[in-house]
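Researcher: Please translate sequence to structure tokens.
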Amino acid sequence: MSKKRRKGKARSDHRPPKPVVTTTEERPKRSDTPPPLGWLSRSGDPRWPSIPNALGRGFVAAASSPIVLAIPFLFVFLGWIALVGLGLEGPSALIVDLAALPPVGTYFDASNGITIYGYGLPALLAAIGFVVVRSLFVAVMTGLIVQSLEGEQEELAGVVRGLRAYPVVLAVNIISMSMMLAGSLILPYLGEALGSLGSVLILVAALFLFAFTPTAAVREREGLMETLRRSTRAAMMPGSRHAIMSMLYIFLALPILVAFAPHGNELTANPRLATWIYGLVVTFVHSAFLAAFAYRWMAVESAVPDGAVRAGGR
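Model: Translation complete:
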């Protein structure tokens, strides 16, 4: 064999080394999120419907029947007439959040009591009266929406189920109002910036903890403490994205939807037609969010743990 052929054969036998493939087990693991933030940043739990999916089902359920559509519109119309009759002199943009979910609606109940009667016992009693009426509205609407999500067409049965859950819904809304009242006494000492941030965080916390309570009360018909225990544990389940959905609703209902109300700054007892149309459209959005929270609870109701949920636990 000549020298050229031997050199060519030597080159052909010299192959580059194969790249080393790192298996999944050999890859370095990412550092875990600190436990206090684990419930917010972990990958989604497949048992929970995604937020877009839940909102889509919520919009369908909110438009499922004429009575489900009519009750919120009637509530807004009669509520505005009642407030004006009591002496409310506020901007017409209040129509936008008259049918808002607690605690946003509860916040407006308290502020309307102060607007009409000033600071003092009459304002507190008026706010409690407004919460009593709002709780009845939320309970009946939840019963109708749950009935629709279950595929039942008997609206009267949904109204009855909502009325049975009314005591629990009322107690939870009073708790939410107590949280806001406590915040109004403490937060001013933190300064204007921190106080404003704290008031928003109180609303987010109240919705985060109690958003599932009306649906749990309608579906399970347990007492107040058991319903609170299960609904708050569901809120703390990892992978739910429940905190994100709660913040989404708070920031939509308070600054964004109110800011876009046409002629919303007008002080009048007779809002313009454009304001009414916009207010009724936003009222439908509130009903859709109520149905979305109900749909998410019904998806994981059987998986809610009996023991305490640790933030960031698997």
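Researcher: Any highlights?
Model: Confidence is low (pLDDT under 50) at residues 1-43.
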